[in-house]
Amino acid sequence: MKSWLVVTALILGNVLWLQASARQPSGAMLSESALAITQLRTDLLLDPGLLTKDKADVEAALPAVAEAETFGIRQREREATIDRLLHERGIYGEGLPEAYSEYGKLHFDNGNYQQAAQLFRQAWHTSRVNAGLYSETQLSYLNSLIESLIELEHWEEVHDLHQLGFLVASRIYPPDDIRYLIAAEFYASWKWQAIEGNHVSGGYRGAFDTAQQLSAFYTEVIDKAEHADSAHTERLVSLVLGKARTDISIARALLRSHAARSALGSGRYITETECFDADPDLPGPARRCRQVQLALYEMDEAPAFSVNFALGRYLTQVNQSVARLERIKASTDRLQQAERDWIDSLINTLHREAQGLSRPPRQF
């Protein structure tokens, strides 16, 4: 009896297993997607190089993603600040120039120079309305606008705004203020950058005319500072050196034009302030100034004597710069010995340059 029960159980178990197997799909009945999974190359999945490359790509992208997210957050914060100030204080409200400027710096640092220029311009305009056309507060916004325009290569506007910046500085700072001299250096530095970078319209003639204007600018600033008995006499060294460098460059251009048989026209005249030391035995101030007319020469066909006359004028001014350097060195005790040695070196170099240019040019 027990053996019959065992046999019956075995038969029933086999039947249930066969029924369960019949309900499962066979390998031949797998779907295409299931078959594709079974056909993947497991060696690729196990290749550690691929995993390392993917991880490196992700890690390299993370800083850029984080930077973009940070920029977006700061951008929304700056915009919210400006909107709040506009709502609370109006379009010329207090704090708006600073808010526009901060937003402009964010765009400038991110390379968005067009947006930065617009925001710096808005900050500068708002500052001028609030503080006046000749205010010190506008200068930082104006300089930031100039930096953005330089990146955009808007050279004409850069030149105009540099000129305006010095005009503002000359209205609010007296000639004996060191900030006046710094503003003059800043403007002159841009003029040289414009000449050397070919950012002056008119090609070679335009550059030559700009150099002559720069020479006249140096003369005016230096004479004003000397006439005002500025306490920052040593600060004039860089301006005097810039003046001499400009005059030597003009003299070289004159010699090149002479060698090429292309002389200079008489051009137009400008009024310039010329200061000089008066006779100590005569009554009146020790330093006196007068208005003189000087010609700005143009590169054109003209009598050859114009070249020789202009060359002599600029070499004379180089010698005057040398005399100024010697006078500065003797009149101040704030110069270190190394600075005095440097000025002596400058004087010797300028002497050699002037002597070399004053020799008669070769005839062709």
> Which percent bin holds the helix content?
over 70%
Low-confidence stretches are 24-45, 259-269, 299-305
SSE pattern? HHHHHHHHHHHEEHH
Strand order of the largest sheet: 1-2
Biggest sheet record? 2 strands, antiparallel
Number of strands: 2
Tell me the distance between the termini. Answer: 139 Å
Please tell me how large the radius of gyration is: 39 Å
Give the DSSP E fraction (strand runs of 2 or more residues). Answer: 5-15%
Whole-number mean pLDDT: 78
Which structural class fits the helix and strand makeup? mainly alpha
**SS summary, helix count:** 13
The gross shape turns out to be elongated
Task: Produce a short descriptive summary.
The chain has 13 helices and 2 strands, in the order H-H-H-H-H-H-H-H-H-H-H-E-E-H-H. With 364 residues, it is mainly alpha-helical.
Written account of the structure:
The protein has 364 residues and is mostly helical. It has helices at residues 2-23, 32-38, 42-45, 48-89, 96-109, 113-131, 138-152, 155-172, 178-196, 203-227, 236-259, 305-331, 337-358, and strands at residues 264-277, 287-299. The protein has a two-stranded antiparallel sheet with strand order 1-2. It is elongated and about 70 Å long. 23% of the residues are buried. The model is unreliable at 24-45, 259-269 and 299-305 (pLDDT under 50).
